[in-house]
Amino acid sequence: MFVCGNQACGARWELDEVQIRNEGQGPVFRCPQCGARNHVEARTARDGSTVYRQVTAKAAEKAPEKAAPKAAPKAAPKAAPKARSKPAPR
Ligand SMILES: [Zn+2]
After folding, report:
1. How close is the Cα of 85 to the center of ligand 1, in Å?
2. 80 alpha carbon to ligand 1 midpoint, in Å?
3. Residue 17 Cα, ligand 1 centroid: separation in angstroms?
4. Mean of the per-residue pLDDT values for the chain?
5. How far does the centroid of ligand 1 lie from the alpha carbon of residue 14, in Å?
6. I want to staple 9 with a disulfide (CB 3.0 to 4.6 A). Which of 18, 28, 34, 76 is the partner?
7. Residue 82: its pLDDT value, please?
């Protein structure tokens, strides 16, 4: 059972209802209803048959995007420390 990853669609499909093809980034099937690409993973079962398991698009990406912490400048030195000048006594 596959579920279309397009949240607006969300259609469910049996294996024989979809065509799994490798479009260069691993096996995917296109949702027959909305055409969204859904990544699957091919596994060879013990009996030699190929089984497909749906994977989320994020998991299928080769280079998972890390939440890169931005190197924030440490306490930037203040340009000109303001010298508080006290009112000069007269
Ligand atoms: Zn769909």
Report:
1. 70
2. 59
3. 12
4. 82
5. 13
6. 34
7. 72
